[in-house]
Amino acid sequence: MKFRSLQSRITALYSLTFGLVMVLVAVAMQQAIAASADAKVRSELVASAAVIDRLWSMRERELQGVATPLALDFGFREAVATDDDATIRSALGNLASRINLPKAFVVRYDGRVVGMRPEDDASYDEALWDELDSGWQSGALSIGGKTHQAVAAEINTPALIGWLVIGREIDAHMNDLTANSAIPVDASVIRRAANGGWVFDASGRPVTQPQITALLADMPTTATRLNQREARRAGDAMVLARPLGTSHGVVTTALMLEFSLSEALAEYDYLKYAVLLAGLAGLVLMAAASMRLAKHIVRPIAALEQAARALEHGERTDLMVVSDDEIGKLTHSFNAMSAGIAQREARIRHMAYHDALTDMPNRLQLGEHVDAVLAGLAERGGQAALLCLDLDNFKIVNDTLGHLVGDAMIKQVGDRVTGVCEGHFVARTGGDEFCVVVTGADAESLAKALIASLNQPLIVAGHTVRAGASIGLARYPDDGLTADDLLRQADLALHAAKAAGRGRCHRFTADLDAEANRRRAVETDLHRALANGEFELYFQPLFDLTHNRFSAFEALIRWNHPERGLVGPGEFIAVAEETGLIVPIGEWVLKEACHQAQTWPETLRVAVNFSTVQFQMPGLTGVVFQALATSGLAADRLEVEITESLFLESSGAILDTLHKLKTIGVRIALDDFGTGFSSLSYLRRFPFDKIKIDRSFILELLSEKEASAVVKAITDLAAALDMETTAEGVEELEQVEALRAFGCTNVQGYLFSEPVPAGEVLPMLEAAAARRAA
Ligand code: C2E
Ligand code: MG
Ligand code: MG
Q1: Concatenated DSSP letters for 136-199?
Q2: 602 band by pLDDT with thresholds 50, 70 and 90
Q3: Which DSSP helix (H) or strand (E) runs through 238?
Q4: Digit-coded pLDDT (tens) for 144-190
Q5: 609 CB near ligand 1 (under 6 Å)
Q6: Ligand 1 pocket, residue 231 CB under 6 Å
Q7: How many angstroms is it from 730 CA to the middle of ligand 1?
Q8: DSSP-assigned beta bridge partners for residue 607
C-alpha cells in the first residue's frame, strides 16, 4: 500500500512511532521485570538458606543435647569400656524412643560399631572412624545409603574409648526445612560421589548444573552469613547450595536450593498482559488521534487545493479561517492572494473592454454586446439598429491644436454622445469613431439628435471647436443578422455619408454592399494585374503658352483588363490606395514614366501623379532616386504631382520628403487646385513649382463669372509666388485665349490631345514640329 495521501502518511508515521515506543517500553519492562525477579529470587533464596541454616544448627543442638548427656553417663561409659553391647543397645534404644527416628550407634575406638542396625551399611566405618578421630563433631552422614544430620559425642573413661553418634534422616525433615521459605523453593540434598562429582542424595542422579560445583568449591565449610552472590543463575533457575557435612574440611554433603525463575516471573504475567493491553489500546487511540490530527491538517489543505483549482478556472471562493496557526495564516494569505488576483483580473478585464481615454466600452465590448442583443432578438423577435458615428472635423482640430486638445475633444464628444443616447449602449471604436446600439427607439431621429448636438460648438482647452459628425446606420434584421455584418454595413453607410458631404446620416443600402463587393473584386484583380503587367501608361501633353510648344507629358495610368478592356484610373486608384497596392503600382508608374521620358527630347518633362499613401510610406525619396538613376533622366525633367489631401496628413515627415525631392531638383506640382479645402495656407507651406487649376473651373471659365474670377485670382497668386500654372481640361480655343489673358503659363486638355499610348508621343511631337515649320 502506498501512502500517497498526507493523511495516511501522518497516521502511519504516528502509529508506527507509537508502536516502536511501545516495543521499547515492553523490552525495557521485560528487562526490569527479569532483573527484579532475579534479585527477588536471589534474596529469597539467601533468606531461605539462612532460615535453613538456623534450623539446621537448632536441630544439631537438639541432637547434641541428647548425645552429650548419654556420652557422659557413667553406666553408658562403663558399658562401652566393658564391651557390654547389650547395655549400649538398651541405652541407644531409650534414646531412639526419646528422639523421633534417630539413628544412634557407638563407634568404638578400636573401630567396632555398636548399635548400627543390620540394614544400615557399615562400609564407611573406617572412613567415619578417621573422621571422628580427627575431631568431627557434627554434619551430614550417609547412613545406610541415606543422608542424615548427625552429631558425635566423645566417650571418655577418661581416656577416649569411642564416640556416640546420633543422626536423623534429612529427607524426613526436609519439608520442615523448606516449609518456612517465603518462596516455593525446591530443596534437595546432594553429596559427593566416589568419583568426586556431585549426585542427588535421594536418586543418585548426577547434578548437571556446573554452578553448583563452582558454588561449593568456594563455599566456606560453615557459613554464618550468606550474601546475594552465593545464589547463582543456572539456566532459567536460581540455585544456592549450603554445606551440610564435611570430611577432612571438604564439603561432602550439601543442601541445594533451587527456584525456577519462570515461576517467579509468572507473577509478573498479569503486568505484561496489562501493559500489552494498554499498548494495544494506546496504539488504537494513537491511530485514531493521529487520524484526527491528520484530518485537521489535511482538510484545510484540501480546501485550499480545491479553491486554488477553482481559481485556475476563474472562480473565486473565500476560505474560512478556522485557526490562527500556520494553516490559518496560509488560508488567510490564500484569501488575500485570490482577492488580489480577482482584483487584477477585474482591472485587466476592464482594460480589455474599455477605451483607455474615455473609459467607454471599446470595440471588443461592442461586438460582444451586439452579439448578446442579437441573440435575444433572434429568440424574442424585435428590431435593433447600429449607428456608426465619425467626427468630421477631428483631424483638423488634432492637426492644428495638437493631440492634447484632440484628446480632450474626444472626451467631451464621448460625454455628449452618451448624454444624447441615454439608455443605449455607446462605445468608442476608434480615434474619432463611436458606435451606438439602438433598441426600442427610432434610430434615425437619434442620429439626427446626435448630429445636431455635435454641431453645437465645444469649448476645449479654451478653444471653440465644432466637432460635426457623419453617421452610418444599419438595421437588424433588415440589413444584417450578425454583429459582424451590422458593423460592416454601418461602416459602409458611414463612408457613404462622408462621401455625400458629411454632417449627415446615411442608411445602409444594398448597393453599398455591391460597391464594397466590387471593390473587393477589384482588389483581387489588382494583385493579379500587377503580377501580370496589365498596366500601361498613357501620356497627355501640357502646352506651354509662353513658348507655344509642348513643355511636358503627364503620365496617366491605364489598366488593360483581360475582360473589361481598358480601365481608367478613376475605377481602381481609390481601391489601390485603400489596400496599399498603390505603393508598388506607383513605383512601377514612376519607373516606367522616367524610362519613357528618357527617350524624349530634353526640353520635355514628364509629370507623374503621386498618391498621399505613397508619401506615408518611408523610403519614397529612395524610390525616386533609383528611378532617376536607372533611367538616366535628369531630376529637373521629373514633375511630381500631389494633391491637397497630402496636407491633411500634415506630418513633418511628408514635408521633409517634399523638400528632399525639391533639393535634388525634382519639380513639385499641386494638382487639382480649387477642389477640396483649397486653403491658401498650403501655398505658403511649400514652394510649389506649379499649380494645376482643376478642370471644374475651366469648364465654367467662359460661362460663370465666379469661375473666371477664381482662375484669375489663382494665376495672379501663382505669379506673385513665382509658380507656374497649368489649366486642366482645356477643350476649347476660347478657353486658351482667356487663360493666356489671365497669365496662365500652361494648358492641358483634349483640345491639344487626349492621353495617348507611349508609342504615340514622338509621332505627336514630330507632327507638331511639322505643323510649326509649315
Ligand atoms: P489628374 O492628375 O488631374 O489627371 C487629369 C485627368 O483629366 C486625366 O484623367 C485626364 O484624362 C483628364 N483630362 C485631361 N484633359 C481633359 C479634358 O480636356 N476633358 C476631360 N473631361 N478630361 C480631361 P484620367 O487619366 O482618367 O485620370 C484621373 C485621375 O487619376 C488623375 O487626375 C490622377 O489624379 C489619377 N491618376 C492617373 N494616373 C495616376 C497614377 O499613375 N498615379 C496616381 N496616383 N494617380 C493617377
Ligand atoms: Mg495629375
Ligand atoms: Mg488634375
Answers
A1: --EEEEEETTEEEEEEEEEEESSSEEEEEEEEEEHHHHHHHHHHT-SS--EEEEEEE-TTS-EE
A2: very high
A3: strand 237-247
A4: 777 788 899 999 988 899 999 888 887 656 666 666 666 677 888 88
A5: yes
A6: no
A7: 13
A8: 554, 639
